[in-house]
Design goal:
globular, binds ligand MGD, Barwin-like endoglucanases, binds iron/sulfur cluster, binds molybdenum atom, 24 helices
Length: 748
Amino acid sequence: MQRRQFLKGALYGTGGTLVALSGLGAATAALNPRRAAAAAPVSRKTVYSSCEMCRNQCPIAVKVENGKVVKIDGNPNDSAFGGVICARGNSGPSLLYDPERIKKPMIRTGERGSGKFKEVSWDEAYTYIAQKLKAVQEQYGGEAVAQTSHIGPYDVFFQTIGKAIGSPNLFSHEATCPMARIIGLNTTFGTAAINADYANTKYLLVVGRNFFEGIHVAQTRAVAKALSQGTKMVVLDPRFSVLAAKGEWLPVKGATDLAFIMALANVLIDEKLYDEEFIKQYTVGFDKWAAQVQDKTPAWAAEETGISQDTIIRVARELAQAKPHSLIEYGWRTTFTADDFQLRRAIMIVNMMLGNFEVPGGYYQVKDAGTLKKVPAMAAYAKKLGPVKVPPFPKPKKGRIDGTGEKGTPRQLTPIADGAVGQITETILTGKPYPIKAWLVHRFNPVMSIGDTEKTLAAIKKLDLLVTCDVYMSDTAYNSDVVLPECTYLERTEQVFDMSGLTPKYVLRQQAVDPVYADTKPAWQIYKELGEKMGYGQYFPYKDIDDYVERQLAPTGISRKVFAEKGLWTPAGMKPFYVRSGDAKAPLTLLATKSKKIEIFSDAVQEATGAGVPVYVPYPQPGEGEFRLIEGKVAVHTNVGTHNVPVLHELMSENTLWINAQSAAKLGIKTGDTLIISAGKYEHKGTANVTEGIRPDTVFCYHGFGQISPQLTRAFGKGINDNKLIPDQLGSVGNSITSMTFVKVRKA
Ligand SMILES: Nc1nc2c(c(=O)[nH]1)N[C@H]1C(S)=C(S)[C@@H](COP(=O)(O)OP(=O)(O)OC[C@H]3O[C@@H](n4cnc5c(=O)[nH]c(N)nc54)[C@H](O)[C@@H]3O)O[C@H]1N2
Ligand SMILES: Nc1nc2c(c(=O)[nH]1)N[C@H]1C(S)=C(S)[C@@H](COP(=O)(O)OP(=O)(O)OC[C@H]3O[C@@H](n4cnc5c(=O)[nH]c(N)nc54)[C@H](O)[C@@H]3O)O[C@H]1N2
Ligand code: SF4
Ligand SMILES: [Mo]
């Protein structure tokens, strides 16, 4: 598909697209004239499903003509999404029909990383993997097998392999993404299932998030709606993001956001602007927090952050004036610093000082059909999905390699199901605390997504087995021993998943077309067949994915037909529900902390880190001649996964290095110049983008470019691979750190 056709296609049919948010301003709203009537009869259908161009899984309506996907819209039956998807979602057919997809299982024949593979049958691939895993298990124990995936529905199938082998070392990608926020929420509310009601907020303070490029369709739309209704927005970001352009930009010094947040608390207490009733009724530990922020004055914070004290005082007063319909956004990719989780906790504590919990325009606990029985007024709407029962797995003989769960250390706070994925390469290289010899990777690209690309490549060289399941010959697949081709989301059905918000919601991904390449398979089938080959058939007791879905739906009484007809289930007649909107003193029965209160002081955090309320720790700032390297998402690509998708590649094929005009002038750098960016022992070439839209001590690039797999022929080598420059540095709770890299820049 050519770019022009793609952009026309973007507004075809019932739905719309968020192209306006692409930040490129490239799209125009042209209607696609229906094709001239073809001679052959046309069979048309719409299949409701969910997108996987990123992990948000937005509900979609796939238009199929004569067995081919011709167009993807948002599912109009979902009011939160309004029939809208983003530009990446629109590009699904371009991935589906891309001849560069991987089409058959492959086993390496040349040196690792040589790109030499032979195509094999699925059975040969399973036999090879099973034998190698068995050998590793016999020599080093089941714990020597690590698994990683970008968290998703395939995990129940994928991780069954590692669990059956007896490995404790199962990792999600979360430590590279929202983990700091998740831990911040877990330790404060006892749950991370807390959302923000952006659409109804009157004042929004954003701390390093870029809704208009780090897109979540429902959230992006909600923020856009609030802004169109006059909501004031203030954005803390060292660079002028697309979001910052829509509000007041505060170019905060990197890694100092906590100082700003603590100073807000200082002002709210000093001027008695906070919600005392809320704090008294619902929280514990406020006095300790008050003591902690007593000397965190706006004057002090101005020094730390580079934002004037008048601005800090004004923002605090404005937040208070709009309370409880004001909110401080808690962040998504929360990987800026080592103790980012304390920043996220502090943000939530100040939110609670605004009393913005369980009211419109504030934060709320997710009202999912599984837990709704705890809210008496809503218990009738509870419909919990059935568990798909499997026999108990063997207990791993050793603890995890990353210390996750160890009492008395910060890692006791890290969710066991996620772990610290950045630990894997270090352990492979050092053999400490014990060797990892086999690594199974699903829908994840650690070569580009765990800091320090060279280190990951070096670690891979030491393995006995690396298996990657992907849709493309990703950078990690290219360096693997076995590559397994999954069919795309448009070619597979998955299990029912929960997308609840203010009301419960279940969504089902449903196969829209037959696999374009007959030898690609869905994850559930790949791991069931591999498991059976390894003698673990008992852990896969269902016949196929349809049987799995039936088992999930059985206790709910929800019919599969609902998904065929609408693509989702949501309780008829239930209105968005905020526990405190009618009664400001209503009990918070969904809170899951031990104290049943919101824990401003957390015993668990105290035990794990010695800092039961967030404490300010200053981080180093770039020295003379250095810049802080930061990175971010771009509207038309997903992380490191879409740069080779033809239409998206055409929209944006390279990134540049943003550098402040004054700093550039000092170095004699102009826009378009070739630069050398260096960090420690690593150097990378890049192209300069000289701008006023970034702090003088900071440089920025969009993440995910400069891919190293030559078999991604379009994306290969184009642009800066930021991940090569970023070390594999882990924070206290195992979070990967991305905003603490200092680089030097010179003209090439
Ligand atoms: N189009 C698109 N949408 C996506 C994705 C995508 O790749 N493309 N990825 C999805 C995923 S996985 C995620 S996690 C989300 C991420 O969504 P966001 O968290 O919004 O995304 P980022 O752009 O990674 O980071 C946000 C901002 O943090 C700023 N920043 C860096 N360091 C600091 C700091 O120390 N302080 C402050 N205040 N700001 C800082 C960056 O300049 C950037 O503008 O987006 C999701 N949606
Ligand atoms: N330096 C640096 N590192 C980062 C970040 C950063 O900003 N800077 N961002 C972090 C964040 S927020 C995140 S979420 C992670 C994301 O890290 P990743 O999960 O590695 O990135 P993605 O691009 O989401 O997807 C990874 C792979 O999934 C494959 N894929 C896509 N669809 C399918 C499918 O249907 N089946 C299979 N089997 N594979 C599929 C893609 O081809 C791609 O190779 O990276 C983190 N790492
Ligand atoms: S945000 Fe865009 S790419 Fe991601 S799932 Fe939704 S429509 Fe697809
Ligand atoms: Mo992410």
